[in-house]
Structure formats: structure tokens, C-alpha cells
Amino acid sequence: MTGTDPTNDNGPAQSSRVRHFAAIVLLLLVFATAYRSLGITRPLVGNFSTKSVIYGMIARNWAEGRAGLFYPTMDVLVGGQRSLHMLEFSVSAQLTGALWKWFGGSLDVWGRATSVAFTAAAILLLVALAGARHGQAAALGAGLSLALSPISVVYGQTFMLDASIVLFTLAVFYCADRWLAGGNPAWLIPLCVSFALLLLTKVYLVVLLLPLGAMTLWPSQFGPSLFVPGQFAPGQSQPAGSRLRRVLLALAAAILAVIPVALWCLHALRTAAPGSPHADHIYSCLQGNATSYRPPDPLLFSADFYGRALDDLTSVILTPVGFALFLAGFLGRRWLRYLPWLAAMVLLVLALPRKFHEMNYYYLALLPPLCIMAGLGWQTVRESLRPSRAATAGLLIVAIAFSLRYSVNPAFSTPDEDRAVVAAGRAVQALTAPGEPVATMHGGGITLLYYCNRPGWFIAPETDDLKRALEECRRQGARWLVVAGPEGEDTRLDGRIGRAPVEAGSGYRIYALAER
Hints:
Number of helices: 22
Number of strands: 8
Mean pLDDT: 90
């Protein structure tokens, strides 16, 4: 540590060491995995279930040979065919589909298990990254913050892509640290692969080029604590050739990482373009997603947006304990090492405010730097207050209690209105042949269609001319309408449809759309 650079803590301090560190990390990983696995056999219902079943459909259709790898396909019929989801390339979903195809079992369980595994690996990488930069105390604080983050618990055990972006993000920064700390260009290979996978999963995380660029240009300020490329000591002036070589290598790695997502975006745009044979069968596409959020969003000028963001930070993102440690992380000057990373995350929120406001799983992309800041906060508390073991255990119990408070219901409980979807889906499968279209009604989402394991449509309960909508489904080959949830127990639906159900179970009803 030089006297001219207060942001460089010259590696982990001796005072930050923790007794039985390796055993505690192992216990943390076991706890985080078990915590998220409590509802691993639960169906994909409840919180943002539509996103889960979209990726479930994509994985199943690819694994069963109904879709190519580069044409993510859903069971929702558009233009008479299964529709395409031409947004991101769902790396996590395709991995789940491959595991299910090779080993069998429940696709739902594989989808949840994949997310749990991504989260556990992310915690391990976060501990390694924070430990190398700041020491064992900060590492445990950061890892525990991620393990207990309610959104990490909720979405770290769902069939969604967001758990994977935490791992890919941390892999990028860990590899960048190892490259800058030792000067070994071999680390650029996993860095490039991780960044490519990250951008394929969520292209908007291209904003991470900002902190990565800062690390490359000014590694002693924003890079690893032990920056010694070419064995030059921290704080020494680097030869021009050394810096130029570093920048050129980083630029080459960035270009290689961006090429796959650029090709994917070009493919997605061409697939959805007018005149394409697939254009009439698109469910969602890059063009529609990009044009629906044009800056500046009016939310940016609303106090409610910032109030909601603060409320999320202190509850579902970090919990009150984690947020207090996050604030403590700004004491001293070590946090300045993360200024570009934090700035990139602020820029991302300001660029996509509505997505963060309406869908809190977007905040998973922000968790890595937030958890590192919380780890720095714990290190500051430990160094300044020196809490006893009893006080530390008490704080841990409070942190776990808050995590349970905000995550148990959305992560592990099945809403009453969703309890019948699996039984309803099985009942329809008994009445239909594989590939036969069906009409479904379950709120405003496609969860029931996924459990029917048939192509078809979802009909909103509030549809004005219900008979006309059902007649259109019948005209396209559907013989059955299956209804689940509150509508599945509402006999008034018989009058709107004009006939009685042919089968009624607990929470669901099945109607024939044609005369039998």
C-alpha cells in the first residue's frame, strides 16, 4: 500500500483473518443450497411464474426435438404454430434442457436445481473475489449477504435465467482480477467465455464494460488489491508498453466476447423481420422489447420510483441488516475501488427504470457489487467495534430472520389459485393426443398451458366476447377448454360458455368446445 493511493488496501490485512474460514465457507454453501432447495419439487407457480414456464417451454421443446437450438420455442400458438421467443439466448434454460434430456426426471426440478447450483457457485466466487481483495472478514460478509438476499433466495431457486447472470458477472470480475494481479493472459480465456455467456443471457449488461475498462486502464485504483502485472509492485509507474499491451489484450477479449451476442441479435432481428418465414410466429422479440422502453422514462421524474427503489434495497434486495452493512461499506476509502462498477449499475437502473420498478428480479444484476459493499461494511464493523461472538451470532440470527420474512412466502408457498394447475394439466393430457391444441384459462398467464404439455392458447377470464374467442380456438383445432384457479370453481362460467363442463375436479373444470 502506497501513501499516495488510499483506495489500495495492499491486499488482505492480517486483522481480517477469520478462524476456521474454510469450514465456515463450506457451511455457508451448504446452508445457501439447502435454503433454496426447500421447495425444489414445487411446481413453477406463484411469483413471476410466467417467466419460469417460458424457459420451461423453451427447454422442453428443444430437448424433445420440436425446436432448433437457435429458435427458442414456446407452446403458445401464434399464427397456427408454436411461437418463438427471440429475446436473449437462454444459456441456463438450454443447459437445463440438456440435463433433463440426458438424465430424465422432472424438468421443473432440473430447472430449479440449475438455478440453485448457479447461486451456490456465485457465492463461492464472490467469497474468493472479496477475499483476495479485502480479506476473509469481507469475504464472509459479502458471501452471507448474497446467501441471505431475499431476491437471491426467491429467484435463485426458480426456473429463470437471473441466477446465472450473478455467476457469470462474478466470473468475469474474478478472471479479470486474476489476470491483472498476475499478468497471465490465460485468464482472458475464461473471462471472455464468461462475458460472452453473460451478454447472451442479458445483453444490457454490456454496461459492465465501464468498470472493466476502468480496471484495465487504472488497475491500481480499480483492480485487484495486489496488482503486479509483469511483477511490478503496486504504485510503481508502469512502462508504456506494459499498459499498451494490457489495453490491447483487454480490447481483443472484449471484441471476442461481444461477437456471439452480436450474431445472436442479428439472427433474432432477421428472424422477426417482415418477410421472414418466422415473422408471423413471434411471441416476443428484440425489436418490441427495445422500443417499449424509450428514454427518458417518466418514472425518472417520479418520487415514487426512488422511494420504491430505496424500499426494495432495505427489504427484498439486501434486508435491513444487509443495507446497514452496505452503508457502512462507504466508511473509509476502500469503496472507491468499486466506483465504476457502482456507477455502471446506477446507469443501468436509469436506462431501464420501468423494468426495475415492475420486476424486482432485475435487481439480481446489481447484487454482486452491493454484496461486496456489505462485506466491506462488515469488515469495518469488525475492525472498529470488535463485536463478541455472542453479538455476531445475534446479528446473524436477525439477518436470517429478515431474509425469511421477505423470501419464504414468494419462494416456497403455492398460492391457492395455482394449486390446481398440475392436476388440470394431467386431466387434459388424458383427453388429448400429443401435439393436439388446447385452450386454457388461468388468470392472465400461460402457466396452465405449460402443465398441459400441449400447444395452444391462454384466454383471459375477462375476455369480453368469450364465445367468439373460444370458437376461434375450436376452428384452429382445439376440442377442449381447461380452466383452473378461481374460475375453475365458478359455475357462472358455464353460462358465459354456454355449456356445462365435461369434467370438474378440485379447482379446475374442462369444457368441450365441439359437440361430442
